[in-house]
Amino acid sequence: MKLFGSKPPLSAWIGLTIMAVYVLVAVLAPWIAPFSESESVAGTWDPPSATSWLGTDNIGRDLLSRLIYGARMTIAVALATTVLSFLIGTTAGFLAAVGGRAVDLLLSRFVDVMLSIPLLIFALIILSVFGSSIPVLVLTIAALDSTRVFRLARAVAMNITVTEFVEVARLRGEGLWWVMRREILPNAMPPLIAEFGLRYCFNFLFVAGLSFLGLGIQPPLADWGGMVRDNAQAITFGLMAPIWPAIAIAVMTIGVNLVVDWFLSINSRPSGAMAEM
Amino acid sequence: MADELLRIDDLRITSVSGNVLVDGVSLTLKSGEVLGLIGESGAGKSTIGLSSMVYARAGCHIDGGRIGLGGVSLRELPVEGRRAVRGVRIAYIAQSAAASFNPAHTLMDQVCEMPIRHGLMKRAQARAWALELFRALDLPDPDHFGERYPHQVSGGQLQRAMTAMAMSCRPQILVLDEPTTALDVTTQIEVLALLKKLIRDYKMAALYITHDLAVVAQVADRIMVLRKGKMVELGETEQILHQPKEKYTADLVAERAAGEHFAVPSIAATGQAVLTVEHAIGAYGDVVCLHDVSISVGRGQTVAVVGESGSGKSTLARLVCGLLPRKSGDVRLHGQSLAPALKDRTREELRQVQLIYQLPDVALNPRQTIGEIIGRPVSFYFNAAPAEVAARVDELLTLVGLPTDYATRLSTALSGGQKQRICIARALAAKPDLIICDEPTSALDPLVADDILRLLKKLQDELGVAYLFITHDLGIVRRIAHRTAVMLRGALVIEGPTQAVFSPPFHPYTEKLIASVPELRTDWLESVLAHRNAAPAVVV
Q1: b/e map A48-59, b = 16+ CB within 10 Å
Q2: Complex-level ipTM
Q3: What whole-number distance in Å separates Cα of residue B537 and Cα of residue B323?
Q4: If pLDDT is split at 50, 70 and 90, which confidence band does A272 have?
Q5: Contact B348/A at CB under 8 A
Q6: Any residues with CB less than 8 A from the CB of A275 and at least 6 apart, and which?
Q7: I need a labelling partner for B307 at 20 to 30 A (CA). Which of A59, A119, B46, B513 fits?
Q8: Least reliable range by pLDDT among A48-57, A206-215, B140-149
């Protein structure tokens, strides 16, 4: 079977399967979860049993149900963040590449300033000032992450801007927006798609990390990072409770990376690689 | 035969993807003999050249055949044995000297490296030999030439330095892979003469690879014509030039000969000028590279701008387009002055001047269909509805001789000549009055280039479009230009009707240019050199 004009290797199939299962679980959460995400069903840190297969958490909620609902929140927030960050980052990056020296200077130096501030500290400050609601969370991470996307988009677009088909478009009198959308974007897609996968993983881990620190997704909504934090103490009693969400995070990250690797390998072939010109 | 040096039998080379690159080619080379390998790109010339050292480029594999050097079968040698042959008994001279030298070492170090490394000479010996070679190759200040770095010498000198490097181990065979193709004509003639002298003086054998029949005619004893990995014809040089047996060879000879005759009437400057450039001065930063150039192109005329690399001919094109805003002077279209910078010109002004580039591969967006590429100017300039655009695209494709179903394809699947046709169609889509052609045929194979020139001429007759044709090839100028401008170091040397420019009395630089273009006769190089020695050429 072919996808994107290439036959995925076994590793890519594993990655695709993992992603498909996660998305299915997230979409079907209300139907497949045995309990709701906020309902206490038993005692604290009960061991796995017939009713709750993975046991219960620190306040007696079913771990499996929370894991299933957590997939929704964690995946959706990371996805929204990455999409937004790419919209901002590529637009600004392309603009810097085609908009002339002044625009490039302004945008690039601004991004340099942003990059010089540690990501986590910056996010923590914003979230503690504005409070951690989901829109604020998504906007903050997307804005911070877009600086990284900007660098790649600008570099890729710079290589394409100097080609003669872009010069032809300029000679025709095309506007900046047309040049960015029709001449540059299609040719910049391969490296950007690969980067999208990688940045999705980073954002996913970042959301989990913020939740672990208590500034990410707020209770009673389930998310995997928060679940690790809630149940962290259980590890001292030799209980499995924090391990399950940690495994869910790890498997998701591996799955996305397997797919990204395949994407990168397609694009490293000379036929599809415009960025290497 | 006893003096047979190199013998290749039934050579077969395939690529990883399974394409046959060289198919059953056999050749022999006697000592003191020069065999020319000629053909279009993809003919397998370089691949055969490299295979004489049992080397195949990444992705290629020597599949079958025997490569014998002095009776020893090279393919059966282990890796060390092959290394002992490469550079020592057979040496290779590549097309791009600039890409072949390490920029971080001096020329002397690189020339001496091989004999020292192979243990053939001590350092002092190698140096002495290198100095002798520098002298034989007529390099300036030979005693100190080796102290320089590759970027400190000119392209022609670097090509000669590479020849010295190839000669450093006193090889029996030289493989010359388009050694003069990247050079200007006036430089090419010097390198060619030296190579010929060197081969004769040191009694070497050589494989001379090129796509230019006239060049190979000067140096080769025999010529092998190749096409798509197969041998078309092998014969004595005189026979190939004058009595080719195969039609393909005859086509190549005819194409090369066509450039030696005038094919269009020369025209004096007319009153109705499409484009007028007056006293234009262009500069990149503070570096002035276009000094006071005036030129005029009449309706339906072709004005050729010729010159060597660095003469400012492409800069002139950029200045006319507005990509390089002029410092002073004037550029007028139909008598109306154009703004210096592109962004200040109106859409209507932009429509009237279109550009065709040298490399069609990079001038077409690989992710747009041909229909989108050609259709965009139609919808952009004429606000045409989608159905009108589609009809116009079909019409344009037919006009440039391509099937209309190409509209849905991507350009990446097309050949170089077809891509250039798409570029022409895109330029025509704007219904321009002037098309600036920046070396549109120099990246194409001779027969394909010939077709493109014919197409351009046909379109001019039908549509009355004017061309500002930038080229370094005087053969093309004679065939298509009504008027010619010769440029040198950013200034206009002479401008006038083509036949007048190319007939006596010559401007000295024009004469030098004309005399440097190889002609299709074996004694051309000798006669030019004899002429030069008799009356020292004017140094311009």
Answers
A1: eeeebebbbbbe
A2: 0.74
A3: 37
A4: very low
A5: no
A6: A156, A159, A188, A190, A191, A267
A7: B46
A8: A48-57
A102–chain B nearest CA distance, Å: 16
In the sheet that holds B434-438, the strands lie side by side as B353-356, B434-438, B466-471, B302-306, B483-488, B491-497
Tokens of B356: 């065709």
Q: Is the pLDDT of residue B45 over 60?
A: yes
**Residue A168 near chain B (CB below 8 Å):** yes
Q: Cβ–Cβ contacts within 10 Å for residue A274, how many?
A: 20
Do residues B493 and B460 touch, judged by C-beta distance below 8 A? no
- What token pair was written down for A92? 């600004």
Q: How far apart are CA A88 and CA A86, in angstroms?
A: 5
CB pairs under 8 A between A and B: 47
Is the CA virtual torsion B141, B147, B148, B153 positive or negative? positive
Say whether A172 and B377 touch across the interface (CB within 8 A): yes
What angle, rounded to 10 degrees, do the helices at B123-136 and B185-201 form? 120
Distance (Å, whole) CA A196 – CA A176: 24
HEC per residue, chain A: CCECCECCCHHHHHHHHHHHHHHHHHHCHHHHCCCCCCCECCCCCCCCCCCCCCCECCCCEEHHHHHHHHHHHHHHHHHHHHHHHHHHHHHHHHHHHHCCHHHHHHHHHHHHHHHCCCHHHHHHHHHHHHCCCHHHHHHHHHHHHHHHHHHHHHHHHHHHHCCHHHHHHHHHCCCHHHHHHHHHHHHHHHHHHHHHHHHHHHHHHHHHHHHHCCCCCCCCCCCHHHHHHHCHHHHHHCCCCCHHHHHHHHHHHHHHHHHHHHHHHHHCCHHHCCCCC
Which of B365, B369, B420 to probe by mutation at the A interface, max A CB count within 10 Å? B365
Q: H or E segment at B401?
A: none
Region A58-71 average pLDDT: 86
pLDDT digits (tens, 9 = 90+) for B312-358: 888 899 899 988 888 888 899 988 888 888 888 999 899 999 999 88
**What is the per-residue pLDDT for A277?**
26
The residue among A39 and B105 whose pLDDT is bigger is B105
Q: How far apart are the first and last CA of chain A?
A: 30
Q: pLDDT tens digits for B61-94?
A: 888 888 988 888 888 888 888 888 888 899 999 8
Render B84-137 in DSSP notation, one character per residue. HHBTTTEEEE-S-HHHHS-TTS-HHHHHHHHHHHTTSS-HHHHHHHHHHHHHHT
Omega of the bond leading into A118 within 30 degrees of 0 (cis): no
Predicted pLDDT at A103: 94
Which chain B residues are closer than 8 Å to A189 by Cβ? 367
| Shortest Cα distance, chain A CAs vs residue B364, angstroms | 5
Mean predicted lDDT score pLDDT of chain B: 86
In contact, B213 and B38? CB cutoff 8 Å? yes
* A138-188 pLDDT, tens digit each: 999 999 999 999 999 999 999 899 888 999 998 998 889 999 999 999 889
User: What tens digit of pLDDT does each residue of B358-413 get?
Assistant: 888 889 998 889 999 999 999 999 998 999 999 999 999 999 989 998 899 888 87
Q: Does B380 touch chain A (CB under 8 A)?
A: yes
Across residues B241-259, what is the average pLDDT?
85
Bridge partners of residue B23, in order along the sequence: B12
**In this complex, do A168 and B426 lie within 8 Å of one another by their Cβ atoms?**
yes
CA angle A184-A190-A196, nearest 5°? Answer: 105
Closest CA to B228 of B448, B47, B40: B40
The pair phi, psi for residue B489, each rounded to 5°, is: 45, 45
Query: For residues A267 and A190, what is the distance between their CA atoms, to the nearest angstrom?
Result: 6
Which of A162, A171, A179 to mutate: most B Cβ within 10 Å? A171
